[in-house]
Write a structure and sequence with these properties.
The protein is an alpha+beta fold and about 190 residues long. The chain has one domain: tt1808, chain A. It is built from four helices and 13 strands. Strands 3-6-8-9-10-11 form a six-stranded mixed sheet. Strand 9 and strand 10 form a beta hairpin. The longest helix is centred in the first third of the chain and has 17 residues. The radius of gyration is 17 Å and the shape is globular. The termini are far apart.
């Protein structure tokens, strides 16, 4: 028997990754922010199209020391756990076929902003990914057409600084040389501007 959402109460002291492991495998997307359980609605079709196309495009030029995957949990610590939309991880980590990664195994985390993830994807996740030492972060915005914001970590200050904002071609040299037309990622039926 699986617990209904109304039957799931926070444990004393907040949720941990051990509590996540004890929950049923029911396809729900669960993340942790300082012991608070965050459940997101199912992604929209355009969100999934962008994620799938980005994953495929990144795989094309991905160096053999890295591997591209999608929506796999990154456990920052026992009380913080996030699921980036697309990730580039070390090939050694990917070879273990894990259900989750540690931050030092992640080279690039990508979030695709939706109406329910604006603050998380623009503020919270990049701050915590940088603090955890993930070298690169991309944020894909879909408001007024597709825009890719690319960032690299400043390891001393543990913050990201911008590498570029792209509306035509993503053109970066890190984590490897990538020239990716935005049109390759854009769904045929992108929702109208808000």
């Amino acid at each position: 028997m699986t617990a209904a959402p109304s039957d799931v109460y926070p444990p004393p002291g907040g949720w941990t990754t051990d509590d996540l492991d004890a929950l049923p495998e029911d396809g729900q997307r669960r993340e942790l922010l300082d012991g608070v359980l965050i459940m997101s609605p199912s992604p929209t079709a355009y969100h999934q199209i962008i994620a799938g196309r980005l994953m495929g495009a990144l795989e094309t030029g991905c160096p053999p020391t890295m591997c591209v995957t999608q929506a796999v949990e990154v456990r920052i610590n026992r009380r913080r756990s996030f699921i980036p939309d697309v990730l580039v991880v070390t090939d050694d980590a990917a070879a273990r076929f894990p259900a989750k990664f540690e931050p030092h195994e992640v080279m690039l985390a990508v979030e695709i902003v939706s109406k329910t993830s604006v603050s998380m994807d623009r503020i919270t996740k990049p701050a915590l990914y940088a603090q955890a030492g993930i070298p690169y972060y991309w944020r894909i915005e879909v408001e007024d057409g597709l825009t890719a914001h690319t960032y690299k970590i400043d390891p001393i200050d543990e913050v990201y600084y911008g590498l570029g904002e792209f509306t035509d071609i993503i053109d970066v040299t890190q984590p490897w040389a990538i020239k990716l037309p935005i049109s390759r990622l854009t769904p045929k039926h992108l929702p109208p501007a808000r």
